[in-house]
Each structure stands twice: as structure tokens, then as C-alpha cells.
Write a structure and sequence with these properties.
- The chain is mainly α and 112 residues long.
- Helix content is 66%, strand content 0%.
- The protein has one domain: Tetratricopeptide repeat domain (Serine Threonine Protein Phosphatase 5, Tetratricopeptide repeat), CATH 1.25.40.10.
- Helix 3 packs antiparallel against helix 4, helix 4 packs antiparallel against helix 5 and helix 5 runs antiparallel to helix 6.
- The chain is globular.
- The relative contact order is 0.11.
Length: 112
């Protein structure tokens, strides 16, 4: 059972990388059109970080999910970024407004 704490192997793996290395690699992947792979790096970076590095990682995840067309996930992560740092994450707040029409109505109404 996973209790939210990192295992010894997770701690060793995260000690191998530093934030700047991971961020550089994620940006390279995005430039290469590999946003889905950048998402994996950002999720690794966010693991165990409740604040998502003051919302920064939520904003990056939102942008990546938007780039691959998963607008529901993008909206979620932009929202998390705004929750963590509303005064700074203005791009995320703007993205939330842009994605305001993204909902699950079409999924739910079909089953009613």
C-alpha cells in the first residue's frame, strides 16, 4: 500500500536529478514536439510536492496537456496552479478562462 511517502529507491532516483536539469530536459522535449514525455518529467518533479513548486509545475503540466489536446487535464492542472499561487499564475488563470467551456456534459448527458 502506498502511504504517500517516497520509498528509498524513489529518494535515490530524485537525488540523482536536480530541478534545473529536469526542467531543461522537459523544455527540450516540448520543443521537439514531445509534450507527452515532458509530462512524465513534470509529474516526477511534482511527486510529493503539495504546492507544485508554488504552482509552477501545475502550469507547465497544464500547458503540456493542452499541447497534446487533453483539455480536461489541462484545465485541472491550470486550476491547481492558480490554487497554489493565484497572484503569480496569471497565465494559468487566463488559460482557465479560455478553457471554461471544457466540461463533461457531453459524456454525462449521453448516459442519461
Amino acid at each position: 500500500m502506498h502511504d504517500g511517502s517516497k520509498s528509498a529507491s524513489d529518494a535515490e532516483e530524485s537525488a540523482v536529478y536536480n530541478f534545473n536539469q529536469l526542467e531543461r530536459r522537459a523544455k527540450e522535449l516540448i520543443k521537439a514536439g514531445r509534450s507527452a514525455d515532458a509530462i512524465k518529467i513534470y509529474l516526477f518533479m511534482a511527486d510529493g510536492d503539495q504546492s507544485l513548486d508554488a504552482g509552477y509545475l501545475g502550469e507547465r503540466l497544464g500547458a503540456c496537456y493542452e499541447a497534446i489536446g487533453d483539455l480536461h487535464a489541462a484545465k485541472y492542472w491550470y486550476g491547481r496552479a492558480v490554487e497554489e499561487n493565484p497572484e503569480v499564475r496569471l497565465a494559468s488563470a487566463s488559460a482557465l478562462q479560455r478553457l471554461a467551456c471544457v466540461d463533461i456534459r457531453d459524456l454525462v448527458d449521453a448516459s442519461l
